[in-house]
């Protein structure tokens, strides 16, 4: 971790009232959590502090039982109120975990004996959630969307080519963009480097080592596994192009060369550039998450066993079901036709 990342979790490292610079031991504790987990915890603390300010409290750790009860009632949905700051019961559960972790980090005791009452409040909020209209699921990237990205970026700048290659890897590797991009231009230790990529001697497969995967336990490595295709959308060729753009083993693999050196792709930049394409084509329901959804959905439509999809997508529970979007018979025929045309043109 570094100072740039620390600034993004300063609510969590504060005691509520005062910003605190982590000691060496504090850094050691923070390293026990993943970056994504810490950012989630920071969001929880920030929401809690917003609540405290709304009731005129200058809060300082530790929290009391009534603080937690009132926070749950304030931000959870109920039959007696409706407010813009309310969150879902699922998010509330995550925030409560974040508040517990906040106390752990500062070596303080989270209120005891409150789980039963808090659990009932969360359950009550969940019932209210069930009455709300279902949110639209994230759309899936399909092959025609990949072709649009390729048509737009393949003859563009070095950055354009890097975004195209990242898109191909994200789709076929069912990757989360946050795992293969970078927070900003100054943080190079979050995403994969050239040394983290291995391509087989026959060029038919590649493996990308992830050191900061969202669902990984502390110190656990996860892997994106890619298989070569006999067409222009091949993810192995895409990662090979990114490796060729690197000068050193510690260069960010999803980057590109500029006149001033090696530049990296930030998640914000990638999503912004792709968003312009999607909005112009009327596909504004697509997002960075749609690559993972799309890769899983296409494999499912083509009859790939669920066990294999889960293995490649690194799902260890039934949560994979949230990512599968059904293909109609027409969409399946169209996908197969695109693959045949691409293969014959290669």
UniProtKB/TrEMBL annotation:
Domain of life: Eukaryota
InterPro entries given in the database record: DNA_brk_join_enz (IPR011010), Integrase-like_cat_sf (IPR013762), Integrase_recombinase_N (IPR010998), Phage_Integrase-like_Recomb (IPR052925)
GO biological process, one term: DNA recombination
First and last residue of the signal peptide: none
Keyword DNA-binding: yes
GO MF assignments: DNA binding
Coiled-coil ranges per UniProt: none
Keywords: DNA recombination, DNA-binding
Keyword Iron-sulfur on entry: no
UniProt protein name: Tyr recombinase domain-containing protein
Organism: Puccinia striiformis f. sp. tritici PST-78
């Amino acid at each position: 971790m570094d100072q740039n990342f620390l600034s993004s979790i300063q609510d969590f490292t504060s005691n509520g009232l005062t910003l605190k610079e982590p000691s060496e031991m504090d850094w050691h504790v923070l390293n026990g959590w993943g970056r994504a987990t810490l950012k989630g915890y920071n969001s929880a603390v920030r929401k809690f502090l917003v609540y405290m300010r709304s009731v005129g409290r200058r809060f300082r750790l530790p929290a009391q039982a009534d603080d937690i009860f009132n926070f749950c009632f304030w931000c959870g949905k109920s039959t007696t109120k409706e407010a813009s700051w309310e969150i879902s019961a699922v998010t509330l559960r995550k925030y409560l975990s974040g508040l517990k972790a906040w106390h752990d980090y500062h070596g303080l005791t989270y209120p005891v004996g409150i789980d039963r009452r808090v659990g009932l409040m969360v359950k009550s909020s969940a019932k209210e959630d069930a009455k709300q209209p279902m949110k639209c699921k994230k759309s899936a990237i399909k092959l025609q969307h990949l072709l649009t990205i390729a048509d737009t970026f393949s003859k563009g700048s070095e950055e354009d080519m890097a975004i195209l290659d990242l898109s191909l890897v994200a789709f076929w590797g069912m990757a989360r963009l946050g795992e293969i991009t970078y927070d900003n231009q100054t943080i190079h230790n979050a995403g994969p480097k050239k040394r983290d990529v291995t391509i087989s001697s026959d060029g038919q497969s590649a493996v990308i080592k992830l050191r900061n995967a969202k669902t990984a336990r502390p110190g656990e490595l996860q892997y994106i596994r890619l298989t070569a295709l006999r067409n222009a959308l091949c993810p192995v060729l895409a990662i090979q192009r990114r490796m060729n753009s690197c000068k050193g083993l510690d260069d960010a693999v999803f980057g590109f060369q500029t006149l001033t050196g090696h530049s990296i792709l930030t998640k914000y930049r990638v999503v912004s550039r792709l968003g312009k394409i999607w909005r112009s084509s009327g596909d504004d329901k697509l997002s960075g998450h749609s690559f993972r959804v799309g890769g899983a959905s296409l494999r499912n439509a083509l009859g790939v066993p669920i066990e294999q999809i889960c293995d490649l997508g690194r799902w260890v529970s039934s949560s994979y079901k949230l990512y599968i979007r059904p293909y109609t018979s027409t969409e399946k025929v169209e996908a197969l036709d695109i693959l045949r045309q691409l293969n014959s043109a290669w």
